[in-house]
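Z., the sequence and structure:
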Amino acid sequence: LTLLCDLGKGLVWMLLARWVLAALVFGGDAASLDHTTVFGASLSLVYMGCILGHVFSPFLGFHGGKGIAVGFGAALGLWWPVALGLLAVFLVFAVPSRYVSLGSVCAAASLPIQCALWGFPLVSVAPIVVVALVVIWAHRSNIRKLARGEERRFAFHKNGEKPDATDGPDQGGTR
C-alpha cells in the first residue's frame, strides 16, 4: 500500500504540474511541454522537487523515504519511456540478485543517462543528476550492507516460515 501511495503521489504531482504549466504558459496546450524543449525543462525541476520533498520531508523532520517509488511515479509523469527504462534497470539487477536496494541504486544511477539518451536538454538533465545523487545518498546504508555482504535479500516468505522447494539453497529450500 505504501509503495502504491508513494508512486501515486509522484505521478499525481507531475501530472498536476504539467497541467498547471501548460495552462499558465501555453494556454492549455500540454503538448508544448515536450521533454526536449527548454519549457519542458521546468518539469525536471518539478521532478526534482517531488523526490527531494519525499526524501527530506518537512512533515517528518526532513527525514523521509529513499525516493524510489515516488521517483518512479513522478517519472511516469515526466516522460513515461524513462519510467519504463528505470523499471527495466531495476528488474535486471533486483530479480537475479534478489537485492531490492541494488536494483534501486542502479536505476537511480541510470536516470541521468536515460534522460540524456531520450533527448532531454542539458538544462533538464542537471536537476535529474541531483535526483540521482540524492537517491543514491539515501541508500548509503544499503550500499554499505551490500559491500559487507549483510544486505537482506527479498523473499516471498516471512522469516521463520519454511520456504517451499522452489527457493534456492541459500534460503533453506531443497532442489
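Confidence is low (pLDDT under 50) at residues 164-175. The chain has seven helices and no strands.

Let me know what you think.
H.
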